[in-house]
Design goal:
Blueprint: H1 5-38, H2 52-56, H3 73-78, H4 92-106, H5 122-132, E1 144-149, H6 152-173, H7 176-184, H8 193-196, E2 199-206, E3 208-210, E4 216-218, H9 222-239, H10 253-259, E5 266-274, H11 291-294
Antiparallel strand pairs: 1-2, 2-5, 3-4
Helix pairs in contact: 5-9
This protein binds flavin mononucleotide.
Length: 298
């Protein structure tokens, strides 16, 4: 069969044009997809599947610190002089009594959001913070700072920072599930306790420290260590007969650090009003998981 050269050329060119058009179409689709995922995040909108609270809770330092040569912190501890453990042996019966007593005390701890203005001795707050300072920490780096605020002016500024952000959290930033969950506990964007409680403790995690030579000191497991310390501090607040709210004011941490003049290597992670409960305090009737749901014995 004879082939018309002109016709063959026209068919060939049409096929080539169709292939090029297809390639261009696919490329442009990919590009528009890339653009969508590279768009700047809209910080006030909760993204499906993402928890803005988790995103803010990275324990990476906000600003890089000059790294130091790796040193072995374990070796430094080995070089410390050793002392005899200060430990009082307790017999089994006494141990049971003490552990029961401690549990009986701790089970009455509740989060309280309504405070009295009744003053609290400064010495008590110092002891509470001292307890936080007894916590274990990665390689004994003690990566925590507790800023204790009693000045009414600074408390008012903290309240202003928190309430402005909480309004956005409730209205736009967080999803409806979050709003429903926290509203069940009786919370909203208004935080009068930040003025009323005699003390506010802002807990900072030190993401790194500074060595005497000015270089970066590694802080191992800094968020974990600081959280354990804060947990012990919470127990001390309760044991002293005071109350607090373990609060995590979303998106306020940088502003709190600036206000309280802490360095870039510190990240605020808890805001704890400390004081007496107001006379009319009520708390949600929560039920705690029984032992068999939280302990697995093998
Ligand atoms: C990590 C953490 C973050 C919390 N953040 C807040 C908060 O921002 N605001 C608040 O009112 N309560 C906050 N709470 C308190 C919890 O709502 C409270 O512990 C919980 O409802 C159980 O109540 P209870 O503490 O009385 O047992 C927080 C608690 C934890 C442990």
């Amino acid at each position: 069969m004879e082939i018309d050269n002109g016709l063959a050329l026209r068919i060939g060119l049409s096929l080539l044009a169709a292939v090029i058009a297809y390639i261009l179409l696919v490329k442009s689709k990919n590009k528009s997809g890339e653009r969508a995922s590279n768009e700047p995040a809209v910080t006030v909108t909760a993204r499906p599947g993402k928890d803005p609270a988790e995103e803010e809770f990275s324990d990476e330092p906000d600003e890089p610190v000059e790294d130091s040569d790796d040193e072995d912190p374990g070796a430094a501890l080995e070089q410390l002089p050793r002392i005899k453990l200060d430990h009082e042996p307790v017999d089994g019966e006494e141990m049971c009594r003490r552990s029961q007593h401690f549990y009986d005390v701790m089970k009455k701890r509740r989060t309280v959001r309504t405070f009295s203005k009744r003053p609290v001795p400064r010495e008590v707050v110092e002891n509470i913070v001292r307890v936080g300072g007894t916590a274990p920490s990665g390689a004994h780096t003690e990566p925590w700072t507790y800023v204790v605020v009693s000045d009414p002016e600074i408390k008012a500024q903290i309240r202003d920072i928190v309430e402005r952000e909480e309004e956005v959290n409730y209205d736009r930033r967080m999803g409806t599930t979050w709003v429903k969950d926290v509203t069940l506990l009786g919370t909203d964007h208004s935080k009068p306790y930040l003025d009323e409680a005699p003390y506010l403790i802002v807990a900072f995690e030190q993401t790194s420290g500074v060595r005497p030579d000015g270089k970066k000191k590694h802080h191992y497991y800094s968020r974990l260590s600081a959280s354990i310390s804060a947990g012990m501090l919470l127990a001390a607040v309760h044991y002293a007969g005071l109350v607090t709210v373990t609060s995590t004011p979303l998106n306020c941490y940088a502003a709190l650090r600036d206000l309280l003049e802490r360095p870039a290597t510190e990240k605020a992670f808890l805001l704890l009003p400390i004081g007496y409960p107001s006379e009319d305090t009520t708390v949600p009737d929560l039920v705690r998981k029984p032992l068999e749901d939280i302990m697995v014995m093998t």
